[in-house]
Write a structure and sequence with these properties.
Multidrug-efflux Transporter Regulator, Chain: A, Domain 2; 3 domains; 1% strand; MerR-type_HTH_dom; elongated; mainly alpha; 334 residues
Length: 334
């Protein structure tokens, strides 16, 4: 079979067939009387073998070794191909992500594109100061795609940079809430906790709804951040979680402050006081928890709290009794 017909049947160009011949990968078995290359069935079979191995990403040099070295073992080479393919996919995925984010920024010209690229690079810098400056400038100089800000906020370990990123996301309104909601379900605890703290910075009803849902989150720290944020927003649904925080001692001072702020009406104050008293009498909490509950009661106005403090002033635990007595004295002095 002549080279032209081989090219048509195999899909390999005549030029590439000549290149294979120059490398010694395949040599036509014979020549016609006029000197044209003539390929045998075995030659054509080898061409198909070459193309099959190339489709796996092997170099022509490796293809030659695979076909001609009797002791050649493919396992190591295939493993290396797997590694290189993964690296290539990761690089291409990163490039695609960057291009999508530039597209989302809707650049008006190449200056905007370059500015967005620079800001994205700064957000990924190893320098915390550079990342912080990028976050603070993101809303003023070149708009950064919300997706990039969310990704940075959920992965940022530095407290100062994280604060700047939460501020930047709060300025975008609700644009990042869907992605942050996904962060609440992340397998990593730190990601979940960064997500709820970022949501807490967004002053919107949709953010409040997410925080309400987070009160039932299996992660106690996530529940705590959500409860504190809802307490600041005056949402009474947070009361049970805040009382739990007082009992557990986890951010108990902040939780007690939030309960005091929520007790803004007589009815609310009585409900909160009843919740605290209920925990005092249920299952005999350990001594430190009883003292924290007593201290929290001291900040709640109303008759229910005062009556509970009067009883606690005669408590067998001297620290509880002294706290309750001091709180009653402060109330009487008002």
């Amino acid at each position: 079979m002549l080279i032209g017909e081989v090219a048509r049947r195999s899909g390999v160009s005549a030029r590439m067939l000549r290149h294979y011949e120059s490398l010694g990968l395949v040599r036509p078995t014979g020549r016609t009387g006029t000197g044209y290359r003539e390929y045998s069935a075995e030659d054509i079979r080898r061409i198909f073998h070459i193309e099959s191995l190339r489709s796996l990403g092997l170099s022509l040099s490796d293809v030659g070794r695979a076909l001609d070295e009797p002791g050649f073992l493919p396992a190591e080479l295939v493993g290396d191909l797997v590694r290189r393919t993964r690296e290539r996919i990761a690089a291409e995925t990163e490039l695609l992500t960057r291009l999508r984010r530039i597209e989302a920024a809707e650049p008006a010209g190449w200056e905007d594109v370059l500015g967005t690229v620079a800001l994205l690079q700064a957000l990924g810098s190893k320098s915390a100061g550079t990342r912080q400056r990028a976050a603070l400038s993101s809303a003023e100089e070149v708009p950064v795609p919300v997706e990039a800000l969310v990704e940075a906020a959920l992965s940022e370990p530095d407290a100062h940079v994280a604060g700047a990123l939460r501020w930047a996301l709060a300025r975008t309104g609700t644009a990042g809430l869907a992605l942050l909601a996904e962060g609440l379900g992340a397998p990593g605890a730190e990601v979940r906790r960064r997500a709820v703290r970022t949501i807490a910075e967004i002053p919107d009803d949709a953010a409040t709804a997410l925080l309400r849902d987070a009160l039932a989150h299996p992660d106690t720290v996530v529940r705590g951040y959500a409860a504190l944020a809802l307490g600041e927003r005056g949402v009474a649904d947070a009361v049970p979680a805040l009382v739990d925080m007082v009992v557990s001692g986890r951010n108990d001072a902040e939780a007690a402050d939030a309960l005091g702020a929520l007790a803004s009406t007589p009815a609310a104050a009585d409900r909160i006081a009843a919740g605290l008293v209920g925990r005092l009498t249920r299952g005999t909490p350990e001594p430190h928890a009883r003292r924290r509950l007593t201290q929290a009661l001291a900040d709640i106005p109303g008759d229910t709290a005062s009556g509970a403090l009067a009883e606690l002033s005669r408590d067998d635990d001297r620290a509880v009794a002294l706290t309750a007595t001091y709180a009653l004295g402060m109330r009487a002095a008002r």
